[in-house]
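Quick check before the chapter quiz. The format below is the same one you will see on the exam, so make sure you can read both the input and the output lines.
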Amino acid sequence: MKYEIIEEKGFKYIEAGTGEPLILLHGLMGELSNWEPALDHFKLNYRVIVPILPIYELPLLTLGVKSLSKYVFKFLKFKKLNQVVLIGNSLGGHVGLVFTAAHQEFVKALVLTGSSGLYENAFGGSFPRRESYDYVKEKVEFTFYDPATATKELVDEVFKSINDRSRVIRILALAKSAIRHNMSKDLPKITIPVSLIWGRQDKITPPEVAVEFHQLLPNSELNWVEECGHAPMMERPTIFNDFLDKFLHRVLLK
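Here is the expected output.
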């Protein structure tokens, strides 16, 4: 990752560019580098901030999508930010939804890509063969349409995480929290503009999930990314950035 991680007042984040604030929220297994193509592109016209969600720091007993949403609230207060665009992948999308449902006045627009919140085929409700590198590699490849997107670096990072006992307990706790915290009743109350940018071949949060999000969110648009899995901003960054550019132009630069 070529961007420097800033550490201050208990927060860790990356920040680049100036302009309207875009807050990028990573997923459960998401590295900050997942957002690198988006950072490179959008920092030219926007203030792009990627907070590191404290998945491995928050007290285990309170760890869940709600506590991560509260962390985002504290972070925005610390940065003195209001009327932000929240952009979340996977668990990050879910955290963005929980935050928006509670603090809609802080959010100008929301972007979800492969978001949990309705239904997902979790990376694992357990890790029966976590000591097997080949098994982990296969699971990471399952995330993408093109298995080559699962680089050795990415597989190594996931393998390391799920073979660290304290980390795997937290990963499982968050996965269970995401399943418990279904958003279907809250979605109709979210009236700000929402863009759904979804991989047509997403096997974690399949296309029908995106369709249901679109039906339940009253002010939403649905954009399909062909030949793409669970992380369009990684696997098809040019197409993802193009959809996001058009949405931001519509909602911010009217």
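If your answer matched, good. The chain has one domain: 6-121+182-252.
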